[in-house]
# Entry
Amino acid sequence: MRNRTFLFAQAIAGAVALSASAVQADIQYPVNNPQPKEGQYVHVPPTMEDLEKTEFHPELKRVIRRGYDLFMNTQQLRGKNVFNSMNCSSCHMGEGRLPFAGPVWPAAVILPNYRPKNDHVNNLEERIAGCFSYSMNGQPPEYGSDDMIALAAYHQWLAKGVPIYSSGKNMYGRGYPKLAEPEQKMDYQRGKKVYEENCMICHSSDGSGLVQNGKEVFPAVWGDRSYNWGAGITRHFTLSSFVKHNMPLGQPNTLTDQQAWDVAYYINSHERPQEPRYTGNVKETREKYLDSFHVHTNYGLKVEGRLLGDHKNTGEKDFLKPDVLRPRTYTAD
Amino acid sequence: MKKYQCMTLIAAGLSLAISSASALEGDAQAGKEATVMCVACHQGDGGGMNIPKGESWPALSGLDADYMYKQLQDIKSGARESVTMQAFVSTLTDKQMRDVSVYYSQLPAVAGKGGEDVTEEELAHGEKLAMQGDWDRYIVPCKSCHGPNNQGAGQHFPGIAGQHAGYISDQLHAWKKGKRHNDPQHLMLAIAERLDDNDIRAVSAWLSRQPAQ
# Structure
């Protein structure tokens, strides 16, 4: 374990060259993620190999494996719960274990907690339901369903050993840490150039990604098969950090911060399925969720002559908002 | 009736091949004629040959036509170094390069070789790298770019399942040593340089044993 932790720390610090062999002194694409800061909580999530070595009940192992399978291949729920080209692992890179790639173990130890996005206390299942509703433009598996419990169990497995209700503020690589504000204002045209030079080869010039033999290979980054206008990654600070730390695939931290901000702005200046909280008026919807969310997006703004989000297109699904997205009061009836 | 079904199947198979094939235009028949100098190494069926301890000749049958055409262009221009291929490619016209690419892309794939002499452990390691990767070393799984079952994705990411282990291994080592660098955006280079000799041996062997189509 110590050895693997060491390797992991090396990898996240981008010092793969040193651990691999002395011969390879001239690594061209070091990982270069930020080093843990003094006093930061560093957690190395266990792997699926580690799971096999535990003394967990075989049934529990089976359920966690099922959760892993759903997490990596969420497309198996396409048309039922997922209505776009995404898998959980599309955003939560490296099996949900990787720092700076939205590692999912923090959710298992921070929740239940208050969430500004929906203004009430959410537990892990409700948080996962949020991903399905927005990022996957879908219909979440029911609370307490086999699939939901399996997914939650996988999250909890990755958090093994982390004290419950640890401070979320001090976790190394949690979420997609916000980049420094861009030196120049984000720019559509500069972003387009970054996209064409770095992203287009996989995600296509029209943002539709790539389907091969009926299977999703590279997810759509805009359009009907992409995340909807309510997804966290429509926020410029979220997408720019995701891009900076994870893209192009295998070459994290190769774009400059400015390039990451610009390309995020470009990608999120394209149409995508309607925000599930749409009131029927895009300006009104933007205003309603402005402070908690849309202040960071281009939804309801005019970009390059187009008013974004001004439509009734819900993408591949035939409903706007899943019923499970509802307010909670936690008071006696 | 049986014959009719068979024909329909063939037709369906062809239309599938065409719909998933690349947009490269070329004359497969003319391409076949131009392969007289290719067959000595790549064989009549396009299956190439695995040569232990030598330079393996890649299987071309069923590979994406655009991908092959780009490799030929790169070898001709020197962007991809291949002493063996250079002499042959330099005699091909642009049209011939298109034609042979289209011709080979339409041939049925032949099983890869070179993965016979490996242990179960090595195969398991190779499968893990190809299908899950090793994220602790930032080795992303092969399939994330090379597509479902590593059988190729679009024109930039060739099928590697069913390719000869010797050839895959040679190429990965070439990237590591800086001898191959014609991959778009160095997407392969970044991964190859994180692989060690054992990784390369294992993943090459496992991939060679998988169906190409």
